[in-house]
UniProtKB/TrEMBL annotation:
Pfam families according to UniProt: Amidase_2 (PF01510)
The name this protein goes by in its record: N-acetylmuramoyl-L-alanine amidase
Keyword terms: Cell wall biogenesis/degradation, Competence, Hydrolase, Sporulation
PANTHER family per the UniProt record, alphabetical: N-ACETYLMURAMOYL-L-ALANINE AMIDASE AMID, N-ACETYLMURAMOYL-L-ALANINE AMIDASE XLYA
UniProt source species: Bacillus velezensis
Taxonomic classification: Bacteria, Bacillati, Bacillota, Bacilli, Bacillales
Length: 347
């Protein structure tokens, strides 16, 4: 049975703020709302406020509500004004993800059915599905990721799509033949502002994820064919992705003129007297990570912030309270502080 959609569309006078660009969608992006509001409240808040953040659908345990027309873009993926996520993907927000429980599970189940319906309507396969994290690295959909169920959710969508008689894949062309090689891997660095990792050796194949400038990848020696080489990339959460990139946008340390660094001591005191065991880079936040006075985000006081992309010395990591990812113990302005584990990547 077709899932009905309630339309509560943003007023046209707000198009310039919420959805300024015409769009022909190519992907569907899954989000978790990270709060416990209903779909009606999510859409009402989004269409009524003066912020640019926007999304096409919100789904709770009872209904699907649309806030942005599907022929307009929405600002939901954090990959910039011309990013593929923001400009070419349909945003689906799953409600009640903060607390989880029965309401969230019902909302996710309805979202799975609805996403399958969207795929069927467009003749797409599950290769058109993306998570928010794929576009800019943000830890979203947070509940699905923290429970390690992304592949399970995709499989459930595929099963629903099969019931609807939809395609398993969007591509009608034969896949590019993979070059079989036993080549070893060598560290490379992304030199483009943004580099798409693709499922095949061509610019028309599906995007696995987009890597920002400076990302470290492992390039497989001998894998290059027609300018495309095979790489692996592991993010700050330990998830590993693989695919093909245009090799002119990656360079080895030797090509960049970098010398092999000398081994660093495992720990050293800084001017605070606290021993440092390394550094982390702030990731997965919109602008900055909060530094807390204790490893408990529900009871801590804020000591300050560290900007996205900046580095900070650490003295270790602790489990703490009220965060499944634990906390980095950082050295902040000469004092010991704590940053949520999901917002730091050790370097």
């Amino acid at each position: 049975m077709t899932i009905a959609v309630k339309k509560r569309l943003v007023l046209s006078e707000k198009y310039a703020l919420k959805c300024p660009n015409p769009m022909t969608p190519e992907y569907i992006t899954i989000h978790n709302t990270a709060n416990d509001a209903s779909a009606a409240n999510e859409i009402s808040y989004m269409t009524g406020n003066s912020e640019s953040t926007s999304y096409h659908f919100a789904i709770d345990d009872k209904e699907v509500i649309q806030g942005i027309p599907l022929d307009r873009n929405a600002w939901h993926s954090g990959d910039g004004r011309n990013g593929t996520g923001n400009r070419k993907s349909i945003a689906v927000e799953i409600c009640y993800s903060k607390s989880g429980g029965a309401r969230y599970r019902a909302a996710e189940a309805l979202a799975i059915k609805f996403v399958a319906q969207l795929l069927k309507e467009r003749g797409w396969g599950v290769d058109k599905i993306r998570k928010h994290q794929d576009w800019n690295g943000k830890y979203c959909p947070h509940r699905i990721l923290s429970e390690g169920r992304w592949d399970q959710v995709k499989a459930a969508i595929a099963a629903e799509l099969k019931v609807l008689g939809g395609k398993t894949s969007s591509s009608s062309s034969k896949p590019t033949k993979v070059v079989k090689t036993n080549g070893s891997y060598v560290k490379n660095t992304v030199i483009a502002d943004s580099l798409n990792v693709r499922t095949q050796r061509n610019a028309n194949s599906s995007i696995v994820l987009a890597l920002p400038k400076g990302s470290t990848v492992q390039y497989q020696k001998g894998s290059t064919q027609n300018g495309w080489g095979y790489i692996k990339y592991t993010n700050s959460k330990g998830a590993t992705y693989s695919g093909y990139v245009n090799v002119k946008y990656i360079k080895s340390d030797a090509e960049l003129g970098k010398s092999t660094p000398k081994p660093k001591p495992t720990s050293k005191p800084d001017n605070s007297g606290i021993k440092s065991v390394g550094k982390i880079k702030v990731v997965g936040v919109k602008s900055a990570a909060i530094v807390m006075d204790r490893p408990d985000k529900n009871k801590a006081k804020n000591l300050g912030t560290v900007e996205l992309g900046d580095t900070v010395s650490i003295s270790g990591s602790v489990k703490g309270s009220n965060n499944a990812k634990g906390y980095w113990e950082v050295i902040y302005k000469g004092k010991r502080g704590y940053i949520s584990g999901q917002f730091g990547s050790k370097i």
